[in-house]
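Give me the fold.
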Amino acid sequence: MPYKSLPEFVSSLAEGEFSIGRAALRFLILTAARSGEVRKARWRDVDLDGCEWRVPPENTKTARLHIVPLAPAAVEILGKLREAVAHKPNDLVFPGLKGTMSDATLAKVLRINEGKDYTVHGFRSSFRDWAAETGFADAWAEAALAHTNPNRTESAYRRTTFFEQRKQKLMPAWASYCTGSQANIIRLAEAV
């Protein structure tokens, strides 16, 4: 989906009737996460007070821990889920009817909300385009997507995940853009 269409799309998801599938898709968009990471997320991996989601290595494509800073809009989604669904630390954040939510559930939510021409995974591309076109550092965006650096020499010396930059600037700006509160976008992008 072109990133310029996201604020309207995310708004329509938020305004619709509550469902775990809708919440999962909104969370996926706001965190720029892979669908498998979202579908396998467990409450024990979420720190609402610290505004962090720790994706364990077994749930990542790179088999490395990926810490995702949670913007207030993402924390709000988790807070509503916490109130709506009884849970224990080992429970899935976004459960399906029979355990782990399927990719088909997310695809259906996308399809019935005027997104039939797009894919769930494509929101990561939307995020990447938005970050590039608004002036955020490529390294920050790549870290947010949990991509590995293909340059072996550079990756041997640059071990940072740019967590503070992602937490303080990139992800709040992305969430503000997606939710339609763009007032801070220019200021944050210029601060980079």
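The domain at 3-190 is CATH 1.10.443.10 (hpI Integrase; Chain A).
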